[in-house]
Structure formats: structure tokens, C-alpha cells
Amino acid sequence: MNSSIIKRLTSAGRLDRIFIDGEWLLPAGQARAVVIDPSTEEPIAEIALGSAQDVAVAVAAARRAFATWSVSSARSRASLLDRVHGLVLERAELFAQAMSLEMGAAIGTARSAQVPLAAEHIRAARDIVGSYAFITHREAMAIVREPIGVCGLITPWNWPLYQITAKVAPALAAGCTVVLKPSELSPLSALLFAEVMADAGVPAGVFNLVNGEGSEVGAALSAHPDVDMISITGSTRAGVLVAQAAAPTVKRVAQELGGKSPNLILPDADLARAVPAGVAAGLRNVGQSCSAPTRMIVPRERLPEVERLAQEAVSTLVVGDPRSPQTTHGPVANRAQFNRVQEMIQAGIAEGARLVCGGPGRPQGLERGFYARPTVFSDVQPGMRIAQEEIFGPVLAIIPYDSVDEAVEIANGTVYGLSAHVQGQDLAAARAVAARIRSGQVHINNPAWSPHAPFGGYKRSGNGREYGVEGFQEYLETKAILGYGAQEQA
Ligand code: NAD
Questions:
Q1: Quick one: which of 448, 402, 391, 447 has its CA closest to 422?
Q2: Which domain holds residue 222?
Q3: Could you read off the pLDDT of 86-119 as tens digits, one per residue?
């Protein structure tokens, strides 16, 4: 199954190419990266990496294309997105297999979440542009919303296709042209996405893909004087570097960065529902989600019950070969992540947190591959490293509290503010707590995901919003035309 993706991309001549100005081109340099299957630690493909020279060519193509794309009708942009949406769904199985291969997503998760949620961002952008008022009137002014220009889009490996569509779709819908630099660790799904764009008939230069290292291609895009906006999803470390590189050219920088999201369980919560759902959300995608609620903040007197329920929930997880449909949790995505997860589990033990289940090392019977044991710590103190630092792995910290005020203080007590959960039967009380939490999203009692809910960070989780109409507007500039006169009657 796996090799069929590689064979397909190889025979189509994709692996050694980048996509610029409607053409699959050889990059200027000779640099290559090896793609590793995290379930076997074996190399599975080699891809060509672009350089600053390729970025310059791609940005020039995007600039030329901007002249016409920026003034194309909203309807024609929606219709391109419609075709892209259809092709992503038509090729869903290919995408699911590619992501399972390149970052170890369990095939069931890839099929049920990684691909369909990615497609939803395209559908949402299409719907938004279809009804968006690009011109509004105030007094005798016209307030015009125009595409900001050429956008550099930098994405991570954890939800590879989802992060790409969450940027490309609204940018194109807004009338911007783009240069995408996906993670060098998950390039296969990105190459398939570029095929979709080409097959959907994207005009030359509107969408460009340059694979490459962050320090080379990402840095060149960030610094490029003819790029108007950079949107990066990644670590806080990379987000800071991008902002520094972008500062001299005063471009707009949107950052979706790290998180350490709290799941605040109020005293009246139904634990039998809240705890298993909280464990599932915290360890979803093997904990490799920036918004994963990895700090479960619980009333101290209910700690034993929470621990029992958490342990039970973890015991239902099936860690193993990501290609097996029975598997719920594959390996973590790469060696660096595996080492990081191991280091943080050791740190939790060394700091005196109590292991409820899991621990260091690989699960039994999985000696090869970057498999980690789903791990729950209890009696975690808010100042411990495992309560403060993003781990990006299957590690949950249960933190007890004595009063709701203290719980809110713990929830807000990290440098991050990306997402949060509140659980409780009294909706008014849950809403009051949600209002006190400093983060871009708060979920009360595990509601359904929506591509229309704006997403982004307070504090060091980032700047700007993605998804929904707010995410779309990030790609627009506002122009006030004074003396415009009265609004013409339609
Ligand atoms: P990363 O920061 O290593 O890489 C992210 C992207 O940035 C990659 O494409 C990388 O090549 C690029 N990059 C790295 N250095 C760069 C530089 N100097 N200039 C320009 N680009 C550079 O992150 P990762 O390991 O791929 O992903 C994990 C991180 O992403 C976690 O911290 C996670 O919280 C974060 N994340 C955030 C969100 C969000 O929406 N807030 C979503 C997913 C992941």
C-alpha cells in the first residue's frame, strides 16, 4: 500500500520537483531530504529541496499572477475552490495513505479526521467568499477590503494537509497568490495537494510550492521584500525567527504557534463523560496537536476517580502499526519528537509527578519505530516542566485544585493561550469560567469542531486568527475611500 504512493509520485516525476508558475520544475540546487517512515524508522523517499533562489522565482511568479487573480471575480475564485474541494475528497485515500506514511497517523485517524477536516477548510473558504461584502459604506466613505498580495505560507507536519488547506484556501479566496513551504518532514501530502491544484486548473503563479528547510526556504520567504504577508504554523521558536526576518520589510506576520491547553473540570462535571473525552482529546493524533488539552485541571477531592477513569480510557487505546485499521495511535512523527517525549516523561518522574499509566520507553512488542507509551501523570504541580512546556506527544498531566479561582489561575498560568476546555453541568458557571480564560478558543463540554470557529493564540501562542470569516480577513487589507459619495442603489 505504502510503496504505491511513492511509486505514483516517482513515476509522475514529483519527488525531485517543485511547483512554480504552473510547472513542475527542478530546483536550482542539489539539496535533498530523506523522508523517514516513523513506524519503521526506514527511509521511504528522497525529495528535492528548494533554496532562496527558487523562492525568488516563485515569488516573482506569484507577483505576476497577483495582477489578474486579485481582480478576478469572487465567484470564479469560489468555483476554483469547489473543484479543489472535490478533488481532495476524490483522492482522500491517497492523502490518508501519504500522511500515514510520512508522519505516522493511524490510517483510521487519517481517513476520519486528517483528510475530511482539511477538506472542510476549503469548503468553508468557498462559502465565505461567496457571500463576503468586499465593499461596505460608512458616512460618505467606501470601506474596501482588498487582497493583501503575495503570501508566504509555512506549515508543520502534525496535521499536514489540514494546515495547508487552512492557509491556502482563505488566501486564494481573498484574491491573494501564494508560495507554500510545507514541512520538510511531511512533503508527500503537500506534493499530492499541488497535483490537485494543478488538476483543478489553478492559473499559473497563483499557487506555488517550494519544498525546503525552514532555515533556507522559510527564512528566504520571510525576508523577501516582495512578499506581503507570512503565515506560519509551527513552534514558537520558528514563529519568532519568522517575525524577526520579516520585520525589516514590515510585512504582516500571522503566527499560529505552540500551546499547553487546559481542560478545566468544574466540581459539578459529569466525570464519566468528561474524563474519557478529555483523555481522547489530549492524546488525539498521539498528542501532536497544538490545541491538545494536555493539562486536566480537576477538583482535588475527585482525583482518585479522575485517575481511575483516565487509566481506563488509556487502556482502550491501540498503539501500533499505523497502517492497521484497528490502530488508534501510531508512532510519534519523527526521531526528534520521540526523544523529546522521552525526555519530558523522565522530567515528570524526576520532578515528583505520579505516574498513573504509561512511562518511559516503547510499548511492549514495539521495539522499532518511534512508538511512545500513552502516559498519564497525576499530582502534577502547576510549575513543573510537564505542566508548562509543550510536549507534543501522548502525555497528559492531571493537576488538582482546591477552588475554582485557583483552577482558573492554573489554566491561565502558562506562556500559551491557544485553546481551552471547560466541563460542567451548570452552563452559566461554565460560561463564567470560559470568560476568564485567556485563550483564542474555549470549548464547553466538548462541542463539535467547526471550520467557522476562529482559531489562534493569545500570548505566545501567536498572533492573528485562522478559520472562519476572521481567518479569511487576515488575508485582506482595508482601504477607506473618503469622498466616495452615496452608496449606489443596486
Ligand atoms: P517547526 O517550528 O519546527 O516547523 C514549522 C514550520 O516552520 C516548518 O515548515 C519549518 O520548516 C518552518 N521553519 C522552521 N524554522 C524556520 C525559520 N527559521 N524560518 C522560517 N520557517 C521555519 O514546528 P513543527 O515541529 O513542524 O511543528 C510542531 C510545532 O507546531 C509545535 O510547537 C506546535 O504547537 C506547532 N503547531 C501550532 C499550530 C497552531 O495552529 N497554533 C498547529 C500545529 C502545530
A1: 447
A2: 2-257+462-480
A3: 999 999 999 999 999 999 999 999 999 999 999 9
